[in-house]
Design brief:
The protein has 176 residues and is an alpha+beta fold. Helix content is 39%, strand content 24%. It has one domain. The chain contains four helices and nine strands, in the order αααβββββββββα. The strands form two sheets. Strands 1-9-3-4-5-6-8 form a seven-stranded antiparallel beta sheet, covered by helices on one side. A two-stranded antiparallel ribbon has the order 2-7. 38% of the residues are buried. The model has no long low-confidence stretch (mean pLDDT 88).
Length: 176
């Protein structure tokens, strides 16, 4: 295995191996390196944006917590779970772009979580942009409490910037 694959956390390595098949890539070390390198770039983009906008990582977020969150999955997908506002959450999902088994992007203005969000678990929605995510690698929330509309605005901005960065990373992973 190459450098990129060895740099990703061990708990992600099996997931990346499965993604090679799901993405329709050749089952070889070059594909593992390609996906691993992309994943590392996405993790860096995610963490840089968190720092810029004042978000911190947490181990879990209760489904009824009024705060919103950004979630980075093992697959390198991004889930934006908005704060509770009048009993509703806006949620959006952006996939890694290479998978053929999930939508590239989806949003639902009236989403409902079915369980707490926990590292290594999955995000589950009874109503949402997706039914469930792949396992959760990182959960980020705003470190300061604020008006839910302002929080949603910051999470939306972060999602837009991170998604744009992810799209640029995906372009480097296209295999002809």
């Amino acid at each position: 295995m190459g450098d990129n694959f060895q740099q990703i956390p061990v708990k992600l390595q099996d997931h990346i191996k499965r993604l090679v098949k799901i993405a329709g890539l050749p089952d070889n070390d070059d594909s593992l390196e390609l996906l691993s390198g992309g994943w590392l770039e996405k993790q860096e983009a995610f963490e840089q944006e968190l720092e810029k906008l004042g978000l911190i990582t947490v181990e879990e977020l209760a489904k009824d917590d009024p705060k919103g969150a950004l979630v980075l999955t093992y697959s390198g997908s991004l889930v934006n779970i908005g704060p509770l506002m009048e009993g509703n959450r806006k949620a959006s999902y952006a996939s890694i772009g290479l998978r053929e088994d999930v939508p590239e992007a989806a949003e639902n203005a009236d989403s409902e979580l079915t369980e707490d969000i926990v590292i290594d678990g999955e995000v589950h929605f009874s109503k949402g942009p997706i039914k469930k995510s792949s396992p959760i690698y990182q959960i980020a929330i705003l470190k300061e409490d604020m008006d839910p509309a302002d929080e949603e605005s910051i999470l939306d901005e972060a999602t837009m910037i991170i998604t744009e960065n992810f799209i640029e990373v995906n372009k480097t992973m296209v295999v002809d």
